[in-house]
Predict the structure.
Amino acid sequence: MQRYIRMLREGKLKITPRREAILAYFIKEGKYATPEQVWKKLRISLGRLGLPTVYRNMEEMHQLGILVKVEGVENRFYYGLCRAEDPQVHHHHIICQGCHKVREVEGCLVGSLSKQIEAKTGFKLTGHTVHLQGLCQSCIIADGG
Ligand SMILES: [Zn+2]
Ligand SMILES: [Zn+2]
Ligand SMILES: [Zn+2]
């Protein structure tokens, strides 16, 4: 929790009960969720909590690198905690289509391809996002059993 609080401070975001509750939700659940899912859980304990507020707070945390945003099934965006040692260091994430659990993928798989892409397109690559999806170990077992 402390490192995420520190990241909020460094990003000049106030530590509010709402932001703390959102962080606590993700730490406890350990998987990705849509703003709607977070809102449904938190509005009971926080009261008078609007979905747009949750959405905005999550988006702000995404900008700071605390929450990762990935496109999941049905073109919906899922947010989850980045658990990398240093979230600022470029890396990727893979999302389980079964349970929405997310794993860090260290290093970059695109780096070695960038020269080829640049040669083919004449573009100078400035960045990328990679959308990795699959089934985690427990979902493979559940699927096959
Ligand atoms: Zn990460
Ligand atoms: Zn899974
Ligand atoms: Zn990469």
